[in-house]
Amino acid sequence: MFEANRWVAALMVSPVLILLFAIIGIPSVFVIWLSLTETTFGTDPVFVGLDNYRQIFGDRIFWRATLNTFIVVNVVVYAELILALIIAVALNFRFIGKGLVFSILIAPYAVSEVSAVVMWKFAFEPGIGVFNVLLKQAFGIDFNWTRNPMQGLGLISLVSIWIHLPFTLIILYSAIATVPEDLKAAARVEGANEWQVFRHVTLRVIAPAILIALMFRYIFAMRLFSEAWLLTEGGPARMTEVLGIYLYRTAFRYFDFGPAAATGIAMQILSLLVASYYLYRLYKGMRNNV
Amino acid sequence: MFERYLILGVRSIILALAVIWSAFPIFMVVSSSFKTPIDIFAFPPKFLAFTPTLENYRMLFRAWPQFVEGLWNSLIVTVGATVLTAVVSLAAGYAYSRFKSRWLTLSAFSMIFLRMLPPVVVTIPLFPVVNQFRLNDTHALLILLYAAFFVSLSTWILKTFIDQIPRELEEAAEVEGATLFQRLTRIILPLSVHGMVAACVFVVVFAWNEYMFALIFTSSEAKTAPLVLAEITGTLEGVQWGVLFAAASVQLAPILVFVLIVQKYIVIGLTAGAVKG
């Protein structure tokens, strides 16, 4: 009964595939054509060759946005990985109230970017936010992230880490919880100390999960838009723009769809490069399963 | 013995810090929504020793009727996107679990491939199309967008759950004359309820909180709560912080309760959907 149903299978997967290709697949390919044309509101696209690419590659702000994206993505992804690893290891034992602690740790997953920005803006509001006052009084640091681009990027990274830490934590904790106790016990019998057990047993068992978490976070972190837009709108003087903001501003503030599309292509290529190894492994695995 | 206590101590300190890190921002905003303007910026901060007031909430609902409409729009969009994702993903998840063919494998791979592409990019080509079909500023458009970016994960989660339902159950039902639709609704659906929840939680949270698509594609009729919240943030002047905190708390409360209730399924879904494969 599960063999001769080719048409039934096609019918059952078609709604998902139609949705995916109509909203993501076809538009993502169509962007290639748009990136080779000049077009704005209400006009038909005119073919201009590689002009849009020349334009964005000649734009200092585009390179600044690329550099900012690179910095923020790496800071966010590795900070999350290290924090999540430490917390996951600390969490991996039995104690009363563990369920409650776990609930609190994943609570930021429920918080929208907008609400998270409200929270952290309040804490770091120049002059009056509690952390700003503390930084000033304790270390004499004037943390004015609305004026200082590096501090602006720092706050964007902080908010981003706060929102997304639960994702990495869940994946790593699930993996750590599956490390067999007798494997660790065996290592201890051999004379390994706790650090060696962690390095040579735990870390080795969870390595695939770390890779997956890293890859997904790289891909999702590159999409960064909302936290950055809501905190600084790319300012001051477009110094804290990331690629998502550069694209949005070009497309929906300046209605210059050609260069925006070219930026989109750059983002797609970067995402697929990061995903390529995972996709390759997945494809091989799937082919062997048929 | 000493080493054991040392390790326990370090664990406790790490977990205490982690709990403060996660909870403190949420706690500050929710508690401040019940404070008077003077208490909000008191230094050192008043954590619990303040007289609670509902004035901020009263002001919110008086000054920002759009916020209530925004909540309503968010609810419609969230329910719509979730139902759409659930229905189409169940069908596809079933097909990927029960049928095998070269063509199906290729389509499953393309699903995951498309999931890797950045969402902001599709807004450029979709923008003129959306205007042409007069879908701009409609619930339907947001529902389609949100569902599109989550059907892949949901299908994958449901497939792994349906994989665990024995085929013999269905074979027996077919001998009794059950159609495919009956098998789906009477056998698969009841036995994959957990998978269904795990497949839906992510789109619920995403749709309720989403900002970027709503910013680009809505202007008034379908404007969602996060967008109105961002507008309130934009009009900040001195005493308005209390109103903002009230709005943020109202937007946050339902989804936070939801996430805490279904947290088990978030863990199951992430491990089934992301790590496998």
Give me some keywords for this one.
heterodimer; A: 290 residues; mainly alpha; MetI-like fold; 12 helices; B: 277 residues; 0% strand; globular
Please provide a written account of the structure.
The complex is a heterodimer of chains A (290) and B (277). Chain A has 290 residues and is mainly α. Chain A has one domain (60-289): MetI-like fold (Orthogonal Bundle), CATH 1.10.3720.10. Chain A is 74% helix and 1% strand. Chain A has twelve helices and two strands; from the N terminus they run H-E-E-H-H-H-H-H-H-H-H-H-H-H. Chain A has helices spanning 6-34, 51-57, 60-91, 98-106, 113-124, 130-139, 149-177, 181-189, 194-221, 226-232, 243-252, 257-289, and strands at 37-38, 46-47. Chain A has a two-stranded antiparallel ribbon. In chain A, a hairpin with a 7-residue loop joins strand 1 (37-38) and strand 2. Chain A starts with 5 loop residues before the first helix and ends with a helix. Chain B has one domain (30-275): Orthogonal Bundle (MetI-like fold), CATH 1.10.3720. Chain B contains 15 helices and no strands. The radius of gyration of chain B is 23 Å and the shape is globular. In chain B, 46% of the residues are buried. The interface between A and B is large, with 99 and 101 residues.
